Amino acid sequence: LKVRVVRSSPPSSQFKATFQESYQVYKRYQMVIHKDPPDKPTINQVRLVPVSFEDPQFKSSFSQSAALFAKYQMAIHKDAPSECGENEFTRFLCDSPLEAENLPDGPDCGYGSFHQQYWLDGKIIAVGVIDILPSCVSSVYLYYDPDYSFLSLGVYSALR
């Protein structure tokens, strides 16, 4: 048995070289120990979208995200439909005091507010609202399709 400590942040060359192999071990562990289904969202099914109506990905997925938010709020928090329309969604999870900023020594995506969208079979099944800041990532809110609660997307999102 050989044990190695590999720097994950910032990612070292060893981390990058062994990422896929490590991910496969993680995925198998989750399936065997935690009984996760094999179709649980993968890295390729997660999109980080800047919260900006100027961003084409954000604009094109806005209606789907807002509808998912309403479904989640009504099922999980028992909100009335009038409490979770597009205006309430925009006010609560799209309007942010943070300004987008791209610095040369910062992450490729830049700093600011983002929607981390989890896609399965061409539809959004969860959204993690996060702020990426110079010294941390802040999880603001997570909402998901209650039909997929068996995937434990809140836990998956937190670990991710």
TrEMBL record:
UniProt keyword terms in alphabetical order: Transferase
Hydrolase in keyword set: no
Source superkingdom: Eukaryota
Molecular functions (GO terms): arginyl-tRNA--protein transferase activity
N-end rule aminoacyl transferase C-terminal domain boundaries: 65-160
Pfam families linked to this entry: ATE_C
One Gene Ontology cellular component: cytoplasm
Record's keyword annotation contains Lipid biosynthesis: no
Protein's UniProt name: ATE1 transferase
Gene name of the encoded protein: Ate1
